[in-house]
Amino acid sequence: MALLKSSGSLVLSLSLAFVASGCGEDETAHTGDTATSAGGGPFGSGGSTSSGGSNSTASGGAGGSGGTASGGSGGAAGGPVVPEVPELAFASVALPGAANPTDFAFIPGKTDEFLVTAQPGILFHYRFTSTGVEEVGRASIDDTFYLDGCGLLNVLFDPDFEENRYIYLSRCVELQVTRLSRFTLDDIASLSDTEAEILTIDEPLVEHPWHRFGSMGFEEDGETLWVLHGDMVVAGLAQDRHHKAGSLLRILPNRTEGGSGYEPADGNAFTGDDGDESIYAYGLRSPWRGTRDRLGRFWIGDVGGDKVEEVDLVVRAGQNFGWDVYEGACASECEGVTNPITSFGRASDEPYVLEDPLTEPATKRAIWVGQVYDHPTDRYFGLFNGAVLFGDYFTGWVRRIEADADGNVVSDRSVGHLPRITSWKTGNDGYMYALTLDARLYRATQVVP
Length: 449
Prior knowledge:
single chain; Neuraminidase
């Protein structure tokens, strides 16, 4: 059974070093309660949300959250209005039983079923209904060490899941040990019995349960797995090229039946005595959430220590993002260090804070980066194609960012507001979804005039 440990009050750090005491149920209303619509699932069947003016409530779903009204252009007389400004509204459903949900993924080939990892070591299988969500099944993942930022952290489907039924889960198994394993999803109740260990990171100097596995994904070849891992709160590890902590890793996991382990992927930063051959980029503190874009670049949200939250753009093997020598942009002696593509601090007058009129008062910050939007069924009028969504867990602002082929920012604008996001991904239906710590799944829709 899972190893359950907790401190006195609810303290959640996930794979980053922030403390969220009492982060369960809010005293304020949710930004979007369950929306009902016959025949269209809990969110209805519409592809956009009407705006009724500044800070309006979205229609087409109960409790949706809108932003300011967007400008747009109409087609032929009586035709649909096409919005010109990217702006998101949100409607949500509750996830029964999921305490401290950390990640989710839609089941390949299905638009209404998905898995959710809960930090105490439970994997949930849910299905949308006409009025909300129902639990299909659950698995208790053995040897899950749950404390603060440790626990069951991430879920990923194998590219050939519909044939091999493989999924990947990352978790802490002890205070000093984190593990990425492959499981076979046939009978979810016995899932834990199918574990095949792929990658284990063991550090005897670890004293704190933070900065562990972050986002992961497969590249287009269907074989190369990229995965983020934090520095485990051990000084110097992120700059140690022979240690996997504080790095972006690329590996070839064993995907044969009964097999385990991995091989380093081709094209990584180091070979031989130069460093660990699975490292692609390093110098990261708490790379909790990230994504890979259509150009093969990695966007990483690296949660800061005391000063700066970073979005780091990895464009080549061997880049060093500076931690724990630098936090934020390097100011001196910067040879060999890559600065973030954008960053923000903790002041109340930061531009990102001021540009969101719904920003919630907070002294803490924790950046997240969502999955790049790139889906053949475009639900957003072309306004998000190729863009990366990112935001701040505490203050709640959500932004859209793009970079050109040379890595220069060409667009960075506010598009919505939703606090306490732990994971942001695109569903198989082409909509963007966000998971929040209070066990709700939100669908994002484009606001139209």
